[in-house]
Each structure stands twice: as structure tokens, then as C-alpha cells.
Write a structure and sequence with these properties.
alpha+beta; 4 helices; 3 strands
């Protein structure tokens, strides 16, 4: 199994895909990082150039999340294992 993981990592690095995969893993970790209440009112759409875009159910939630943005970014990067996400954009 370790050989497969090493092969995949090598493939991603050689084709310049590693950063994109890491960025988009933020989508997978979103629910764990923000918790059930927030995840029910948001949908992570994707990440590009270090920015995670998240759809929010209403303006009140958007405002609340703007205040929590720094902590969310910190927790996402902790889960990812690198300082990959630089910004979260709520739409």
C-alpha cells in the first residue's frame, strides 16, 4: 500500500497536480472543520489559487462566517497538513 501512495504522490508532483488536490481536499474537510450547524447552511464549491469558495444559505450566515474566517482557514490548513488555503470567499 505504501508503494501505491508513493506512486500517486510522485504522479501528482510530476504533473503539477499536487497543489490542486491539496486545495480541493478543503472541500472534503469542510464539514469536519465547521461542524454540523454551519455545514447545514453552507456548501463548499471548490478551491482555486488558494481560495476556497463556499455558498451560504443567507446573508446572516455569510456575515457570521466572515467573522470566523481566520479560524476556519487555520483549521482547514491544519487538516490538510500544509498552509494551502489562504482565503475563503462566501457567496
Amino acid at each position: 500500500m505504501e508503494k501505491l501512495n508513493t506512486s500517486i504522490q510522485g504522479f501528482l508532483e510530476s504533473y503539477g497536480l499536487k497543489k490542486g488536490v491539496k486545495q480541493n481536499s478543503a472541500v472534503l474537510y469542510w464539514d469536519d472543520v465547521v461542524g454540523e450547524k454551519i455545514s447545514k447552511n453552507t456548501t463548499p464549491l471548490g478551491a482555486e489559487h488558494g481560495t476556497l469558495t463556499v455558498s451560504v444559505s443567507n446573508p446572516a450566515w455569510r456575515q457570521e462566517l466572515v467573522f470566523k474566517k481566520k479560524e476556519i482557514i487555520k483549521q482547514l490548513n491544519k487538516k490538510i497538513g500544509e498552509n494551502t488555503i489562504k482565503e475563503v470567499r462566501f457567496i
